[in-house]
Amino acid sequence: MPARNILVINCGSSSIKFALVREGRDDFILHGLAERLGANGASLRWQGETDEQPQTLELPGADHKAALARLLPLVAQAAQGKLHAIGHRVVHGGERFTQASRLTDEVLSAIRETSPLAPLHNPANLVGIDAAMALYPDLPHIAVFDTAFHQSLPERAYRYAIPEPLYREQHVRRYGFHGTSHRYVSHKAAEMSGLAVGDSYWLSAHLGNGSSTCAIANGQSRDTSMGLTPLEGLMMGTRSGDVDPNLHSHLARTLGWSLEKIDHMLNHDSGLLGLSGLSNDMRTLEHAREQGHANAALAIEVFCYRLAKSLASLTCALPRLDGIIFTGGIGENSALVRNLTVKHLHVLNLELDGEANARCVRGVGGPIHLAGHPRVLVIPTNEEKQIALDTLAVLD
Ligand code: ADP
């Protein structure tokens, strides 16, 4: 059978990321981004495999449907008319979805029912799905869920210590996110280390604007740092990560803040941005730290200490550790963050090779540990490829 072409679509509230993936290849035939949808200045940017520069197009007044109508012909042309399926990223699949699923009316209504658990993400994902299905009704459309990989968590890891009816009736439990990335890099780590996926144990740190850690045993997620929502766990770009659960009532009592205001503060004004008072962007903070900006240095220090603490705590989920994986924009590029984090993990006997660590930037991955010490790997993630692989698995 000739290699198949899968279009991967990731719809946010005002953007669509897309990539055309050919079976058996790591790079994309075409990829791009439509942004500021539904607002002034909507635009589409894309780059084909033979294009030296990305191309851009203004899309005045475009919404998701209009942007898809404009980008799908580009995809069809790049695929030379041979598009085999569309894989859609869906953030929350609740407890219902343990793997990717073909989008039927029943699956669509289950995703809709899960929306209260991800009010910012699932409705945006559904807008993209509806628009793509209307434009390509005859193609198979597959939903790939961020939460599905973590459905293998044991109950001791996914339950909160709160009254049981809140779990049974309201589905309040830990779900975990970034599953596509944690799965992809743990498979790559096993491949890179000559170990079988089914007999290997990893801790992965996906560090982007959103960040999470995961303990993976024999190809299955056993615990992860994010919970009911993507706010729990690590400190992130603008998200606080773990805080005292009494913070809400404290701020409401002492400052009279509303739930919405507290929610906004924890999700949008906290993390690297909140602590540094400068930026949510790690590159900017590293630069400021070098110039002597004390709060930028503190933000990076807290980020790394909390990350190390999360990784150390996740060792409880594994009987053995074959290695630690760094991925995501920060994990793949910041030698400083990797270095400061590993320094806190002395008790695990981790030690980095400074040169190898410095070499791993801009898509270059590989082992960065000192010989004779436990593995530490930098592995560029490729969520689009994993979504395409999951889509192909459903087709087969
Ligand atoms: P998202 O979660 O939005 O997909 P990314 O995975 O692209 O985010 O990660 C974005 C983060 O990666 C930003 O904080 C950015 O500063 C950081 N980053 C990218 N390149 C570098 C670099 N060379 N050094 C340090 N941080 C970097």
Automatic annotation (TrEMBL):
The active site is at residue 146. Its cofactor is Mg(2+); Mn(2+). The record marks 178, 239 as: Transition state stabilizer. Its EC number is 2.7.2.1. Mg(2+) binds at residues 10, 383. The keyword Transferase applies. Mg(2+). Can also accept Mn(2+). It is an enzyme of class 2 (transferase). It is found in: Cytoplasm. Pfam families: Acetate_kinase (PF00871). Homodimer. This is Acetate kinase. The lineage of its organism: Bacteria, Pseudomonadati, Pseudomonadota, Gammaproteobacteria, Pseudomonadales. The gene is ackA.
